[in-house]
Specification:
The structure is a homodimer of 232-residue chains.
Chain A (H helix, E strand, L loop, with lengths): L22 H10 L1 E5 L4 E3 L7 E7 L1 E7 L5 E8 L3 E2 L1 H6 L6 E4 L3 E7 H10 L1 H27 L2 H16 L13 H8 L3 H13 L3 E4 L2 E4 L2 H7 L5
Antiparallel strand pairs in A: 1-8, 2-7, 3-6, 3-8, 4-5, 4-7, 9-10
Helix pairs in contact in A: 1-3, 5-6, 5-7, 5-8, 6-7
Chain A binds a DNA duplex (30 and 30 nucleotides) through helix 7.
Chain lengths: 232, 232
DNA sequence: GCTAATCTATGATTTTTATCAGGTGAGGAT
DNA sequence: ATCCTCACCTGATAAAAATCATAGATTAGC
C-alpha cells in the first residue's frame, strides 16, 4: 500500500510527470517527501486553502470539486495513481481553486513546496512537463465548458460515461472501474440528481449501458458516442 | 499602431508575461519576431490548427472560442494588449483547442515556436511565469464550469458583465470598453440569443445596467454582484 | 446479520429556457 | 440621403429541466 521510499521504484514512475527528472533530483525528492494516506471520503484539501506542498498519488482515486453558491458540488475532474495535485495553487501562488477528496483509500507522496520549486528550477524539462500538463488540463476544461453550455443533459451524461471509462478503465467484468453515487454523477453532469437517475434509467432501457448497483458497464459504445455527440 | 521593433520599448512590456525576461533574451525575441495585424472580425487561428508560433498582442482585442456540434460559438475568454495567445498549443504539442479572432483591429508580435522554446529554456523565471499564467487560466475555467452547471441564465449574465468590466475597463463615459453583439454575449453566457436579449432588457428595467447600442454601463454594481451571486 | 441511514427510483407539478414567428431599428454601404 | 441587411426586441408556444413528494432498495456501520 505504502509508496516506496525511493521514487525510482514506484510503479507509477514510468508514466508520471516526474519521469524525466534527473536521478539527482529524484533522489532529493525521495529524501524530502513524506508518505500520507487518506481514508475513503476524507478531504485532502479544502477549496481556498494554501497547500504547502504537492501530492503525488501512489494509489487511489481523488475527485477535485468546487462548491457552488448553495453548497452543491461541481466535480471538475479526477486524479488517479501517478497524477499530481495541488501544483497549480503553488505555482500560481493562489489559494487552491478546488477541494480534493478521496474516492477510496488513497496513498500519496507529499512533496514540500520548497522542494518542488527547487526541482522546477533544476529541471527545465520537468518544468516543461508540468506546463504541458497544465495546458492539457485547460484544453479539457474548455471542452467541458462547451458541453455544459451547448449540450443537453442526456448528451452530457453520455459523454461523462465515456470520460469515466477513459479515466478509470474497466474491471474484470467490464464495468467502469469506479463507483459513483447518482448524486456524484449529477455533480459532474451539472444537473439535479433526479434528472441524472432518470436519464441513467433511460440509457439502460435503450441498451446503451448496464448497471449493477453503482457500477456501470458501457454496452453499446458506438451508440453512446453518438448520443454524446462525440466524434473523433 | 505598429509595435516597436524593440520589445523593451513596448508600452505593454512592464505588465506582460515577458517582463522578467533577460535583456539578452528580449533582444533575441526582438530580432526574431515579426509584426502582424488583423482586421476586426478576422480569424487569427482556427480550432484544430497547429500554430507555429505564439502571438503577443500589442493592441487590440481577441476572443477565444470553441464551436459546438451545431456550429454555435462558445466564447471561452478574451485577450487584450500585453496578453499572449497560442502558447498552450505549442507547449502541449496539441492542436489549438479554441479558435481566435479579432474583436477589433489588432496588432501582434508573432514569435516563432523555436524562439519561444529557446526563451523558455533560457529563462526559468519566464517559464514559471507562463506556468503561472496557465494555472490562473485553469482557475478561471473552473469558475466558469461551476457557474454554467449551477447558476441560472440571469445569474450568469450578470456575472458576465462583471467579468467584461474587469477585463476591458471603462471608457470615458463609464461604459464597459468593449462592444459585443447580443449573440456574442449569449455565446459567453451559454444561452440562446433571445434569452440573453430578454434578460439584458430585464437588468436594464431593474436599473442595474444601462445600454447605448452595444455598449453597456454598470449602474448598480452592488446589486449586479448580488444578482450574479458573486461574493468576494 | 441487523438496522438505520442513504441512495435510487418514479410520478406529478412547476419553473426555466429554447424555439418559432414577426416587427422595428440601427448601422453600413453606396 | 437612401436602402438593405442584420441585429435587437417581443409575444406565444413547446420542450427541457428542476423541484417536490413518496416509496422501495441498497449500503454502511456496528
Amino acid at each position: 500500500m505504502e509508496p516506496p521510499v525511493n521514487c525510482q521504484l514506484c510503479k507509477n514512475h514510468p508514466n508520471s510527470v516526474f519521469n524525466d527528472l534527473s536521478a539527482e533530483s529524484l533522489d532529493k525528492i525521495s529524501k524530502l517527501k513524506s508518505c500520507v494516506s487518506f481514508k475513503k471520503g476524507q478531504t485532502i484539501l479544502q477549496e481556498g486553502a494554501r497547500p504547502q506542498g504537492v501530492y503525488c498519488i501512489h494509489k487511489g482515486k481523488l475527485k477535485l470539486f468546487k462548491l457552488g453558491t448553495e453548497g452543491k458540488e461541481q466535480i471538475m475532474r479526477f486524479a488517479t495513481a501517478g497524477d499530481m495535485v495541488g501544483y497549480r495553487s503553488i505555482l500560481s501562488d493562489e489559494p487552491i481553486s478546488a477541494s480534493i477528496s478521496a474516492l477510496d483509500d488513497t496513498y500519496c507522496c507529499y512533496i514540500p513546496k520548497s522542494s518542488f520549486f527547487q526541482v522546477i528550477q533544476d529541471n527545465p524539462k520537468f518544468s516543461l512537463n508540468v506546463l504541458k500538463l497544465s495546458c492539457q488540463e485547460l484544453g479539457e476544461a474548455g471542452k467541458m465548458i462547451t458541453s455544459l453550455a451547448q449540450k443537453n443533459v442526456k448528451e452530457r451524461l453520455a459523454e461523462i460515461f465515456l470520460i469515466l471509462r477513459a479515466t478509470f478503465g474497466e474491471d474484470e467484468d467490464g464495468f467502469v472501474d469506479i463507483k459513483l453515487t447518482r448524486e456524484e454523477i449529477a455533480n459532474m453532469v451539472g444537473t439535479a440528481t433526479e434528472s441524472a437517475i432518470r436519464l441513467i434509467s433511460g440509457l439502460r432501457a435503450e441498451g446503451l449501458i448496464e448497471t449493477k448497483g453503482r457500477k456501470v458497464k458501457i454496452i453499446d459504445r458506438v451508440a453512446l458516442r453518438s448520443e454524446a455527440l462525440v466524434f473523433e
